[in-house]
Write a structure and sequence with these properties.
Blueprint: E1 17-22, H1 26-35, E2 44-49, H2 57-65, E3 70-75, H3 86-103, E4 111-115, H4 121-138
Parallel strand pairs: 1-2, 1-3, 3-4
Helix pairs in contact: 1-4
The chain binds FE2/S2 (inorganic) cluster.
Length: about 170
């Protein structure tokens, strides 16, 4: 999709990015970028985590459901996690998450995981820049409504305490 796509109000599309940053590295890099007066797009809204290993896949799905066009996750480089293995757990979860969003019809390119240490403000700027460009190419995220089951009784839940037909006791 062209990066000139309108967001509906006549202005060029500006992607919304929700960024989950580890406090000890990527968040510190964003602080450094600010202190160094580096300029980078203001499209990212940062949420600070104590470790990238704290990232629950539901946080990412909730961000997408609530209007984000992309999600950026930033953690300490391999071997530097303050909680030993948080970043490797994050990497494994992130790979599964990319497969899950693809199944939901969302381009996995909307998700990005980067290891950015506290001193790498310039890398952070380049990553945010690159992600904004990529999301402009992809266009706004439009989630399809989940189709409701069809047929008589389809989708009805049994009353609380009553097992569905064929369900194990
Ligand atoms: S403390 Fe930064 S990724 Fe774990």
């Amino acid at each position: 999709m062209a990066d000139t796509e309108s967001s509906g109000n006549g202005k060029a599309f500006q992607p919304r990015i929700v960024a989950f940053f580890c406090n000890w590295c990527t968040y510190a890099a964003s602080d450094l970028a600010g202190a160094s007066r580096m300029k980078y797009p203001a499209n990212a809204r940062v949420i600070r985590l104590m470790c990238s290993g704290r990232l629950d896949p539901q946080f990412v799905l909730a961000a997408l459901r609530q209007g984000a066009d992309g999600v950026l996750v930033g953690g300490c480089p391999p071997g530097d996690c303050h909680f030993q293995e948080g970043n490797s757990q994050c990497r494994r979860r992130f790979e599964l998450l990319c497969r899950l969003v693809a199944q939901l019809g969302i381009e996995p390119q909307r998700l990005r995981l980067e290891w950015i240490s506290a001193s790498e403000a310039d890398k952070l700027r380049d990553v945010v820049d690159g992600m904004v460009k990529q999301l402009k190419e992809l266009g706004p995220l439009r989630l399809e409504p989940i189709p409701r089951p069809e047929g008589p009784g389809a989708g009805d839940l049994p009353p609380a305490g009553v097992a569905a037909e064929g369900a194990p006791p």
